[in-house]
Design goal:
The protein is an alpha+beta fold. The protein contains 9 helices and 16 strands. The chain folds into 2 domains: 238 residues, no CATH class; 97 residues, no CATH class. Helix content is 26%, strand content 29%. The N and C termini lie far apart (51 Å).
Length: 354
């Protein structure tokens, strides 16, 4: 009998945009799915070794990309690996050495994703290898974007009458979703463990009551240049969420501190630390995992579909006005295929070029 466990999974949210330039008007926050669909499909036709992107310590590849059960959503998975250092494998129960991971070897991790064709919302499963980032995916896609230049040329040709142009340099953008308000995120906590307030060395310490005495003593001893960090630990055993919510509401309003952070337990049971700069649109779901620790792919996609359909933070995002899609075009398809064939013949794979 296969043992099944429910575990929390974090989904990271990002946003694709496909900018168009129309003379005096620039359409930045628009999404037209055709371009990104063709880019992903073209990348998948490359040989796996030509498809990858790697630098000195991490690699990413596209493992699959296809239509989902929902006509408005596409799905797939990335493959990530961490490498760059020879390591010894051990059995964590016996602590015996069982093998070696060479410098150019890595452990594969599948990272499932979905893209909403209407808005460009990208949902990505949190990577077990902790390799996947927005910047890494952007670099991976950027290294392959020349494959779809024939499509861009044809789009610009048929949309000349509409005064719309795709610039090859910026044919797509991958951005973080708009950050959630700090106080709104604070409401997601079940229990607060610590709160941290920071004054940097440019702040007038005398204007903040709690630091006046310390500031006076430090200056007396010739220390003028310092940062002050105040950590408040919750030792009461109580959740204290409402108390800290009211406290931080006052702190933010007074604008006396340069930065602040909260650390504690979310309603989902996950431990998290938030700062105003670190808050992103994460989604938390519970998924069945088998005895090998592998999550149910089907359930992940079901939850992603639910979020896209019912909890989409960029619902209502528009396509480009008066834009004409290329559609099926044999000349464009052949030109892209020629580029794919040539890339597969090349003697080098995708890697860091800087």
């Amino acid at each position: 009998m296969v043992r099944v466990m429910l575990k929390n999974i974090t989904l990271k949210g990002y946003e694709f945009c496909t900018p168009k330039f129309g003379g005096d008007v620039q359409y930045e926050k628009v999404y037209d799915y055709e371009l990104m669909d063709i880019l992903f499909k073209s990348i998948l036709k490359l040989d796996k070794s030509k498809r990858k992107y790697k630098n000195d310590i991490v690699s990413i590849n596209l493992g699959d990309f296809k239509q989902s059960n929902d006509a408005n959503i596409v799905e797939g998975h990335f493959i990530t690996a961490r490498h760059g250092k020879k390591q010894t494998q051990i059995d964590i129960d016996s602590w015996d050495e069982i093998g070696t991971i060479e410098k150019n070897h890595g452990v594969e991790s599948r990272v499932y994703f979905m893209i909403d064709r209407r808005t460009g919302l990208l949902l990505v499963q949190e990577d077990f290898n902790r390799v996947f980032t927005r910047k890494l995916l952007h670099t991976f896609l950027y290294s392959h974007k020349e494959l779809i230049y024939p499509y861009i040329d044809e789009y610009n040709k048929i949309n000349k009458k509409n005064k719309l142009t795709i610039h090859k340099r910026s044919c797509y953008r991958l951005i973080n979703l708009k950050a959630i308000n700090f106080l709104e995120t604070l409401k997601e906590f079940k229990k607060i463990k610590t709160a941290t307030l920071t004054l940097d060395n440019t702040t007038e310490k005398n204007s903040v009551d709690v630091s006046m005495i310390l500031d006076r003593e430090l200056k007396k001893n010739g220390i003028d240049d310092y940062d002050l960090e105040i950590k408040i630990k919750n030792k009461s055993g109580l959740n204290m969420v409402k108390v800290f919510e009211l406290y931080f509401e006052s702190i933010i309003e007074q604008q006396k501190y340069d930065s602040y952070a909260i650390e504690g337990e979310l309603n989902t049971g996950k431990q998290k630390k938030i700062t105003p700069d670190s808050i992103t649109r994460d989604f938390y779901i519970k998924i069945e995992h088998n005895s090998n620790g592998e999550p149910s792919m089907g359930e992940i996609f079901e939850e992603m579909t639910r979020i896209i359909s019912k909890d989409n933070p960029i619902e209502g995002k528009k396509t480009t006005p008066n834009s004409t899609m290329v559609g099926e075009n044999k000349d464009v398809e052949m030109a892209i295929q020629e580029r794919i064939i040539q890339r597969n013949k090349d003697s080098f794979g995708q890697q860091k070029t800087s």
